[in-house]
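Fig. S4 source data, part A: sequence.
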Amino acid sequence: YRLGPAAMVLASRFDPLQALPELVRPALQQLARRTGEAASATVLVGGEAHLVGFCPGTHATTIHFPQWRWDNPLDLATGRVLVAFTRQADDAPLPLQTCSATAPADRSGWQAEFQTIRKRGFSLLRRPDEGQQLALGVPVWATRDKVLASLGLACPGFRATLAHGQDMLDALWKIAASLSRELGCAQPPLSQPHLRRLTPPRSRKEATR
């Protein structure tokens, strides 16, 4: 006999670093094949973001991560998803300064971004200091009210068109929904999202549109 995915996660619920790598590996490989871009899976451990899986893209030029642990989860699109969905983002102490030039300027800006992520179901991150690299992250649900992990895709700026970004988001959403079903969440509580732009909202008004 072999434990199913949901039972594996429950049995290892206090150590997702051990429970998830085997489960997410096929999903990341499928994402990389489908989009050609680098795929990753991230969990929160305490206040840190930890990668539990990575698969490089199939293009000659692909994104690579310099590390597997980030003290500041807000440096990652997947980390922002996890903070928005799994922490009391309005009250929790967070290192608000990040390595991304697209970061909000203050706590009220972060609160607006977390609200946008929860409403739309994904995070979008651009890195102007790295050639306008585009990163997207979506939640993986264990139940309709519990996010266990986040799947992400990242591509170099020269491939970051709106059409390709939508293709990346579509693939992420479909595969994250499939993985969520394996983990016990039959239907994610949000509808499949759509990209309106390739830059994060610049104001609270834009964030709530």
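Fig. S4 source data, part B ends here. The two ends are 49 Å apart (CA to CA).
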